[in-house]
Amino acid sequence: MGVAFLPPLFHRYNQAFFAQTIPCDQLRLSWSRRMSRAAGSYRRRGGLAQITLSLPVLSPLPASATHSTLVHEMIHAWVDLVLHRREGHGPCFCGKMEEINSRKTGLTVSIRHRFPVPPRPASWQARCDCCGAVTPYKRRVTGLACRTCCGRFSGGRWDQRFLLRFERRPASAQDQASWG
Ligand SMILES: [Zn+2]
Ligand SMILES: [Zn+2]
User: Quick one: pLDDT band at residue 178, thresholds 50, 70, 90?
Assistant: First the structure.
């Protein structure tokens, strides 16, 4: 659970699985709040490579998901920076992945990160000042009135007394799985 500090994990696995060959001075490790379509990515522009892990995908999952995603991206880094091969999940990648999995360290790497990708979190919420109900929304909507209060006090007709007030959803609420 939560967010791991990546450099010690990188060094541990660089030693355990790659004989410390992945050059850490050419590689940046980071968490992304915005990347939510994949658990991790490896990219290189010129001399600087980057491994990015997704905070929204991985933070709700057990730590093992972060570890196996990091090692998956480290295999990409190794294929690119050490072997200088251009392949996606090709023979070099798969050979290394099988070697790591066969060592039965408890860490399993797969080609697809089979993790649930969370739906885009609602970043707005609408509050009814009359009944206090708060409902998450992905975007702002104007002219919405509280259905409960309109039903209770206006015979179900739209009533501007119960207009919803839109506000930014606090980050802590966005992280919860039970929104919407
Ligand atoms: Zn991959
Ligand atoms: Zn209301």
Answer: very low
